[in-house]
Design goal:
Strand order of the largest sheet: 2-1-3
Largest sheet: 3 strands, parallel
Radius of gyration: 17 Å
Order of helices and strands: EHEHEHEEH
Strand content: 5-15%
Distance between the termini: 41 Å
Structural class: alpha/beta
Oligomer: single chain
Number of helices: 4
């Protein structure tokens, strides 16, 4: 089983207890306002050590509670490109709450496409971002259908 690491906002590490727990889960802090080259180096090192990296491309949770994707930060594409690793899209049905059932869907892993996938042009990055958004929207539709189907069966 592959090990994984999680990119987590640095604010989670400010509380010593929470920081200890999050670090124990394999997270390492990221300053979202001032992304340093050392963060990128750390991620590349983890990938070279055959670790999987969990990145949240939206950069934050959707506090509105809607199912719409927030603006996607394209940094995860640079990581996947330079690391020559696949992107495995995942999506939660709704905002997590304690003691409430939630659902997650995991899509098929895919690699970025381009003439040289390790050095994508700006145009290729944009095309891959569009592709990612399509995959995520398709996953959202699939997840909604499955969950709504389960709910309608219960109500019968």
């Amino acid at each position: 089983m592959k090990k994984f690491r999680i990119l987590a906002k640095k604010e989670l590490f400010e509380n010593k207890l929470l920081g200890f727990l999050v670090k124990g889960l394999g997270a390492f802090p990221v300053d979202r306002e001032h992304l340093s080259p050392s963060t990128f180096k750390t991620v590349m090192t983890e990938l070279k050590n055959d670790h999987q990296i969990f990145i949240f491309p939206e950069g934050t949770r959707n506090k509105e509670g809607t199912k719409e994707l927030l603006e996607i930060k394209s940094g995860f594409l640079a990581v996947a490109s330079k690391g020559d690793c696949p992107i495995t899209p995942m999506l939660l049905y709704r905002k997590p709450k304690a003691f409430r059932r939630n659902y997650i869907i995991v899509g098929e892993p895919f690699y970025l496409e381009g003439e040289n996938p390790k050095r994508l042009t700006k145009e290729e990055l944009e095309l891959n971002l569009e592709r990612y958004l399509k995959v995520m929207n398709d996953l959202r539709s699939e997840l909604d259908e499955k969950v709504e189907g389960k709910k309608s069966k219960k109500n019968k």
